[in-house]
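Mods, move this if it's the wrong board.
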Amino acid sequence: MRKLSYFIYPFILLSIVGCSNSNSSDKKDEEKEHTHKEGEEHHDHAANEEKAKVNFPVDGYEFYGLAEVKPSEAVTVEEMVLAIQKNGSFEGNVSAVLDGVCKKMGCWVTMVNKSGESVRVRFKDHEFGVPTNTPEGTEAVLKGIGKIDTISIDLQKHYLDDAKEAGEEVAQEKYDEITEDLIEVSFISDGILVKK
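Not the wrong board. Structure tokens:
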């Protein structure tokens, strides 16, 4: 397989990737979340705004989400990845630096570890998002579940479509390079604190 992150390869050799509990119905649900219908908005965060706005004060941060995030309990991205490698999954709080934000709806972010590898974060059930103008390098604390996941060819191309629709230049070669499912660490977040 191509594009395997450096921390995934040993798991394939040890057949631990099976711990991800990904199956075809998960992939269908994932792709369904990202399917565009003619005349519809990609995601309808506004309809869920009241439900998604839990409010608790944390000095210096803006909160988005459904569940309380506890910075005092946060681990680093590297510690999260190690826990996933060891146990097959991670549940808790992660302190991170954001290196990407969905410029269309704010429905996903990426967080970077010290070696420069990115981990994609999707927000639970698309019930909330972050501001699309959140700059790269912003500090954040996220609560959720991390695991090894399979990202389908269609969903990989969909992420490129999102970037293109948001005004980024995306060369056809980027689409052409996507020929196989991608196995990577992913994170589903139900709450995020974004540094002001």
